[in-house]
Amino acid sequence: MSEAIADIECDDVAVAEDEGALKPSRRWRVLLFLLAFSPVIVLGIAVGTHAVDIPVWDDWERGEMWHRYYEGTLDFEYMYSPHIEHRSLLPRLLTLVCGLLFDGDLRAEIWCIFLIVAGTTLFCFGLLRHTLGRESHAVWPTEFLVNLLICCPVQYPDFLWASMVAFMMPFFCLAEILYLSVTRLPVWAKLLLIVGACELGTHRFS
Predict the structure, then answer these.
(1) Rounded CA separation 205/178 (Å)
(2) Please, which residues bridge with residue 83 across strands?
(3) Which phi and psi angles does 87 have, rounded to 5°?
(4) Which residue has the higher pLDDT, 26 or 121?
(5) Residue 87 DSSP SS3
(6) Does 5 have pLDDT greater than 50?
(7) What are the two backbone dihedrals, phi and then psi, of residue 109, each rounded to the nearest 5 degrees?
(8) Which H helix or E strand runs over 86?
(9) What's the whole-number mean pLDDT along residues 112-135?
């Protein structure tokens, strides 16, 4: 009996030691994640401190949409109509939803751009883990370089201009499609999601 109790105590000590050994590993992973995604974090800080509710260039085009909305004449024909030889159905819908939810504040759309960019980096992270291996040490520096490229400061107009949601969405949709292609989802689910992503990417600025 005493030997059994001693064995249990030894097992408890071993488990505790194993759990203690895992904690630094988890902290290390969190640190690696924060370092790899530091460009995304810096971008979020930049958006929070520099985004303004001032329309520029193509942002003024939404004035006609809001006029039609409040006049009760806004319809699908206008939403799907071309703008400088492009059909911006999805950006117009996003503008309408954000405008109604946030009282027309353009910063809501700018934050949508940030979320689209952040989502793109997460899809890339999933692709890297699948390609290089989940436990590969090369995933973290590679993801940092990918994030640095996506969130490059030279692209600051794209991150602070509400109309740029139309140009950011294709990269998100492409990364999503590539990631979905390597998941273990059923074929029918992959097909539906990929076709949906293709439609979203097409109608953002077709």
Answers:
(1) 21
(2) 86
(3) -105, 110
(4) 121
(5) strand
(6) no
(7) -70, -35
(8) strand 86-87
(9) 90
**CA atoms 70, 72, 73, 75: torsion sign:** positive
In the chain, count of helices (H) and strands (E)? Answer: 10, 2
Tell me which DSSP letter residue 60 carries: G
User: What's the pTM value of the predicted model, to 2 decimals?
Assistant: 0.78
Range in 40-44, 87-91, 112-116, 142-146 the model is least confident about: 87-91
- CA 86 – CA 206 distance, rounded (Å): 5
**β-bridge mates for residue 87, sequence order:** 82
Distance CA 123, CA 146 (A): 11
Is the distance from CB of 160 to CB of 110 less than 8 angstroms? yes
Rounded distance between C-alpha atoms, residue 129 and residue 140, angstroms = 9
Q: What rounded mean pLDDT belongs to the chain? A: 81
Q: Locate 172 and state its tokens.
A: 């998100």
Integer Cα distance of 67 and 115 in angstroms: 28
Confidence bin at 146 (pLDDT 50/70/90): very high
Q: Which amino acid is at 43?
A: L
Query: What integer pLDDT is reported at residue 206 of this predicted model?
Result: 60
Looking up tokens 């319809």 gives 75
Neighbours of 4 (CB within 10 A): 8
* C-alpha to C-alpha distance for 181 and 99, rounded to whole angstroms: 35
